Amino acid sequence: MKKIGMFFALLCVLAGMIVAKAIAAEKQEKAGNNRLRVGTFDSRAIAIAYLNSEELKRHVRDRTIEHDKAKAAGNEKRVKEIETEMGDRQKLAHKQAFGTWPVSEYLDTVKGKIPDVAAAAKVDLIVSKWDVVFKAPSAELVDVTEPLVKLFNPSEQAMKWIRDLPNHEPIPIKKIEELESKGEI
C-alpha cells in the first residue's frame, strides 16, 4: 500500500511539474507575441515618391495655369504669391528628399491606405526611422518604406532613386540651405 501511495504522490508531483512547465511556456509564448512591432520608413523615400507622383504633377500644372492667367491679366500680386508659394514648396521638397524633414502632408494623401500597410506588416504603429531616438530590446523595428512608397504608384525611375537611398546619408538641413543659396540644388 505504501508503495502505491508513494507512486501516486510521485505521479501527482510529476503531473504538477508538467502542468507548471506548460503554463510557463504559454506565458513565455504570449510575452513573445506581445512584442511591440514598430513600422519605420525613410522619409526621403516618401518625399521622392510623392514629388514624382501624378498628384503633384497635376498640382503643379494647375498652379502653372493659374500663374499664366494671373500674368496675362496683369495681376502681379497674384503672380508673385504663386511664385513665392512654389519657391517655398521647392525648398521644402529639398529638405524632405535630401534631408530628414517630416513628410506628414504627403502621407496624409494616402492615409486611408496606411492601415492596410500596417496590417500586412503586422506592426502596431508606423514612424519615420529618423524619429526613433530609443528602442527597447523587446521592441521590433520593421521597415515598411517600400509598401508605403508603393501607395504613390512611383515610376521605375523613382523606385531606382528610392532603392539607392540606403547608400546615402541624409544631408543636414543647414547644408541643404547652403546648397540652395548657391543655386546648387
Question: Can you describe what's shown?
Answer:
The structure is a single chain. By secondary structure, the protein is mainly α. The protein has one domain (39-181). Helices cover 65% and strands 7% of the residues. It is built from nine helices and three strands. It has a three-stranded parallel β-sheet with strand order 2-1-3. α2 packs antiparallel against α8, α3 packs antiparallel against α4 (76-98) and α4 packs across α9 (173-181). The termini are far apart. The relative contact order is 0.17. Residues 9-17 have low confidence and may be disordered.
In short:
The protein has 185 residues and is mostly helical.
How helical, in percent, are the residues? 55-70%
User: Helical region count?
Assistant: 9
Overall tally of domains = 1
Distance between the termini: 94 Å
**β-strand number:** 3
Average residue-wise pLDDT: 88
Notable characteristics:
single chain, 185 residues, mainly alpha, 3 strands
Topology:
Blueprint: H1 2-33, E1 37-41, H2 43-51, H3 54-72, H4 76-98, H5 104-108, H6 114-121, E2 125-128, E3 140-143, H7 145-150, H8 156-164, H9 173-181
Parallel strand pairs: 1-2, 1-3
